[in-house]
Every structure is written in structure tokens, then in C-alpha cells.
Amino acid sequence: MKYISTRGQAPALSFEDAVLTGLASDGGLYVPENLPQFSKDTIAGWAGLSYDALAFEVIKPFVAGALTDEELRTIIQKAYSSFRHQAIAPLVQTGHNEWILELFQGPTLAFKDFALQFLGHLLDHILARRKQKVVVMGATSGDTGSAAIEGCSRCENIDIFILHPHNRVSEVQRRQMTTVLSDNVYNIALEGNFDDCQNMVKASFADQSFLPDGRQLVAVNSINWARIMAQIVYYFYAAVALGAPHRAVSFSVPTGNFGDIFAGYLARKMGLPVEQLIVATNANDILHRCISANDHSKKPLIHSLSPSMDIMVSSNFERLLFDLYGRDGKAIAELMASFKSGSMTLSESALQKAREVFSSYRLDDETMTKVIAGVYDTTGYLLDPHTAIGVEAARKCRANVSTPMVCLATAHPAKFPKAVAKAGVTDTPALPHHMADLFDREERYQVLANDLAGVHQYISGQLS
Ligand SMILES: *Cc1c(COP(=O)(O)O)cnc(C)c1O
Description:
The protein has about 475 residues and is an alpha/beta fold.
């Protein structure tokens, strides 16, 4: 399978190169040239498959020519053996035909583990074959860093450097990163804010001459195609468990960079009967404004109680636009150029196509905490703040109560005790058993000044 850029100007790449490259040279994002199609009979035949077995069926066509069946099976098995629930992605019922898909059973208690556990083992496999070593570098304000570190911590061919703003991430989030003591994991606490961290990473990708010979940087942020691909699986898994393909299912997705919900859109295009996809946003609502009012304009960032969705612009939205514009790379390059002004307007036909499947809703912190309290009160089930936004959006946007509504639970409530306390829930959510000693574990991190040369000197010093 070949991968092409959404802006039409970069060369098509193999799966392997697309995964190692990240952003295309024309500024676009890589997408598969053709989407695999699964017939109704094929999907019906997946009833009862284990998560690993289903992941194999869904991912296989995307990696054709790059991985053998045996290699793919091994990578999947390694990736999901770190999840502590046997079902990997269990479903819990919270209302009439309303289900929570628990995507927080992985090592860092957020759905990002689905993609990053897979990506870590995939990269390690590709690199071993190429006899190549790379450096993963990233900036984090919370969840992504810990999931990336866990995903790469056992990889022999990867050194990983994650920058977080010193004293500006929560203690749970910091400890989830800094207590991973593998020799290839380096946590940098930068004396600056998240933007400083991100700028430092961007500058490092632009000029990699500080790295020792033969090393290159690899990005594991959500524009990496392999992350989207791994996320398609749980849409099939949940839908088949609830009766697909014989009946349609809807999904509500707490959305930030649009990676997660885009995977749901792809599942639908591949043959899964999906009736509605609900884009649930917090006060950073660019996608809600775009879908409901064709207003895709940048606004200042608001810091909310659902910090993993605090983004100004959703990078993966471009992948959807590419489809909505009939896969016309030139049109997307023009549209994205127009967005440099801070806003862009979708064509009527693109907007109409989006609305055939997407609905959207926005929730502020106050309403979100009421939802946590209300669901806890009626069912005893404790939602994390991101999931609560998804649940309320589903209830508000639902077109058809006889269609099962699956709300993606993107994080475990124990990661966000502040929001839970604000909701007035007095039982503090306990960390799961395997993390109960998190606050007693040894930490390792390096505090560095906000100075590019100093950071580069530190990184090259660790690598030689
Ligand atoms: C990353 C994240 C999201 C947003 O996912 P996108 O793929 O960026 O839309 C939502 N909830 C949690 C808990 C996250 O960590």
C-alpha cells in the first residue's frame, strides 16, 4: 500500500517511510492511497474475535508489503499485552442504549496507549530490520508524553527525549513520565511553558545537525499515520460487539486534534455501518464552530479542566478535508494557505458532506462537572472530564435512540482528580492497582534552561 500527501505535491511513500517521515515535504499529512473495504459478510464473520485477532484483520491491508502476517501478529500481541483488562477495550452501559467504551486500560490510563504502544513496537521492528537507530523527540503538556515514553521504553533502537514545562504539569502526569527508569528514556523539565517546549522541538526537527552521525529525529505526535491506523480497530471492535454489521452504531468522541474521531470516519468508509459521529469539544471549539456554522477560525487558547483537548487548531482535520474535497491535493493546499490568515471557509459541498455523518457540540467546564456529578449520581460510574464532554454531546446530538451510542472514554478519572472534586464527587478516584505506588516511585528528570543550544548539548551528550 502506498501513502500520499493531502497537499498533492510530496512523493508517495511506502508504509514504512510514511511512518518514519511524519509531516510530508509539502506540509501535508500522509493518508493511504486507497482505503481497504470490508464487506458485510466479512465484518459479520468477526463476531467474537479477540481484540488482537480483530486488530490483525483491520490493520493487515494497510501494511501489505511492509510486514508479514507473523510480524504484524507479534507487534499487536506485544502492544496490547500491557493492557490490564482482558477485553482491552471493554464496554460498560450507562443508559438506554448508551455505552462507554473504556479506552483507558493501558499503561498510562488514556486512549493514546492504543496508538503509542503499537507505534513503539512497530518502529522498533522496522528499525531493527534497517539496522538503524532513531531519536524520538516530543513536547507534552500531559498525556501524550507519558504514552510515548511507555510505548518506547522497551525499544532497543529508540532513544526518547520528552520535554515538559517544569512545574506546569500535574503531579500524576509528571510521575507517569519520570518514574519510567529505562536507560533510553530522557525527561527534560524545561524552564518555560508548553509553547517553549513545542518551539524547541520544532527547531530541533528543522535543524538536526546536533545529532550524532546516522541519527535522525522521528515524531510520534498524532499526525503519524500509524497512530490513526491503530485507532480504527476499536471502532470495529465496539460496533461488532453491539450488533454490527446487522445494525448501525453511533460514536461520540471527545476531540482535540481530530485523530481519534478521524479513525472512526475511516472505519465507516471501510464498510462499518456508523450512523453518527459526534465531535465533542470543550471551550476550545474550532471544530464545533466549523461543523455547525462554517466558522473555522483561530481563537486564543482557553485552559480548561479537560486539558488534553485544549488545542487551537486540530491538525488531523486536514485529512478529513482532503476527503471532503474529493481528494484534490491542490484544493487542500489552497485552502490551508488561506488559513494562514487565521480563518478559512469550507465549500458548501464539503460542509454538506461533513454534516451527513458528523454532528458537534461544545461544553464548558461548569456543564462538564455537572455531567460527571449526574452520571455518578444515577449510575455510580465515574467519568473523567474528557469523557463527560463526550457523554453530554451524545445526549444532545443523538438522532435516533434505537441506535446504540458508544461514548469513547479517553482517560481514567484518577488522572484528573481536580475536575472530579469540582464535580462534588467526594470519593477520590483511586489509581488502579498497578499504579497505586506511583507517588512512592523513584523519579528521574533533568531540569534545563529554555535555551536551544543547551538542550542540544544535553541530548547529544546522552547519545554518545
Ligand atoms: C488526546 C486526548 C483527546 C483528544 O484526542 P484527539 O485524537 O487529539 O482528538 C481526548 N481525551 C484525552 C484524554 C486525550 O488524551
